[in-house]
Amino acid sequence: MQETLTVVLAGGIGSRLSPLTDHRAKPAVPFGGKYRIIDFTLTNCLHSGLRRILVLTQYKSHSLQKHLRDGWSIFNPELGEYITAVPPQMRKGGKWYEGTADAIFHNLWLLSRSDAKYVVVLSGDHIYKMDYAAMLEEHIANQAKLTIACMDVPRNEASIFGVVCTDDNAKITEFIEKPLDPPAMITQPERSLVSMGVYIFNMDVLQEALVDDSEREHSSHDFGKDVIPELIKTNAVFAYNFYGDKGRVAKDCYWRDVGTLDSYYQANMDLLEPVPPMNIYQKNWAIRTYEPQFPPARTVSSATGNEGIFINSMIANGVVNSGGSVQHSIISSNVRINDSATIVDSIIFDDVEIGEGCQLVNCIIDKHVRVPPYTQIGVDPVQDKKRFHVSEKGIIVVPESYHFTN
């Protein structure tokens, strides 16, 4: 792994996650009560032995960079280890990153200063566990120029991904970005093989491909749309089977692109399943994050005698439930729940206070919100749409620092 440089793409706008991304980058959005989305990718790097990591930031990056500083300043630069946030340097002119490939092209000078032989390119906005070391071993064994991590999905869901066709030896013969009619797998006609956005390049191949793409007219400078289809024509490009992962991670094979409010909400709710589809309790693959120093969560009897209760929920440190009822919900740090308040099927971010007698159902409450007593959210759809953003599946989102009026 000493010959490997990792680049994490973390500059996307994440507009489909608005209003959660109105004041933060998508990889910095809280997840699972105590984590940030990017923690899952960085944890994979940590456990896989990848210790030289560039995080390419761009839009609304302050929250993300603060999180990297507070939670991920763990490597030793004297040993050549680092996690470094790299905002746009404007070295190719006064332009922002214009695509996934363009983001790395703008930072080729950093790649050229590295003595790395391989480059692992990752997205900072996916939820999954994966041992990249096992994928790198297979990349080297195949003498590949590029290896793409892939998984199979139902064919009718594949049109939102880059779809891959391979031969019997897992060599990729075709890559089609978001096709309207996705090609099926030969062995499973109802399923398609899709890219997970996890790439391992030989350094020289990546550098040459990015320079060629920068000179190509009408390119969108995107790996899936432009760079990878061109590389397949002349190079050995292989698929790595995520479901057959040979690494040390638990074989739950869970991967989610939490690009919409509904997919984000569902991925959080997945953690509350009796047997969660992703095991975040694997002892040798602990998900690392920054966590403020709060006291343990507790329940308190209210002045009226109501007991604070939690049912099938995840509760972070610093939470005080004084006579409220929380069911099938995720409660982040430093949340106060007052007498007779009920919270059901909801996600509450840090530093929120839920007033007495409130009813919250199917909602996401962002940070620093004070919900007044007896407020109802998720009970009256007409009133909810007048005040808040409501997702396609009816999840109500209260934005950060929202101020309620009568």
Structure, explained:
This protein has 406 residues and is α/β, with parallel strands linked by helices. The protein folds into two domains: 282 residues, Spore Coat Polysaccharide Biosynthesis Protein SpsA, Chain A; 101 residues, UDP N-Acetylglucosamine Acyltransferase, domain 1 (3 Solenoid). 21% of the residues lie in helices and 27% in strands. The chain is built from nine helices and 29 strands. Strands 1, 4, 5, 6, 8, 9, 10, 11 and 12 form a nine-stranded mixed beta sheet that branches. A six-stranded mixed beta sheet has the order 16-19-22-25-29-28. The protein has a five-stranded parallel beta sheet with strand order 14-17-20-23-26, with no helix packed on it. Strand 28 and strand 29 form a beta hairpin.
Overall CATH class of the largest domain: Alpha Beta
- What's the main sheet like? 9 strands, mixed
Helix content: 10-25%
How many angstroms does the end-to-end distance come to?
58 Å
- How many domain regions? 2
Mean pLDDT: 93
**Would you report the number of β strands?**
29
Strand content: 25-35%
Radius of gyration: 22 Å
| Shape designation | elongated
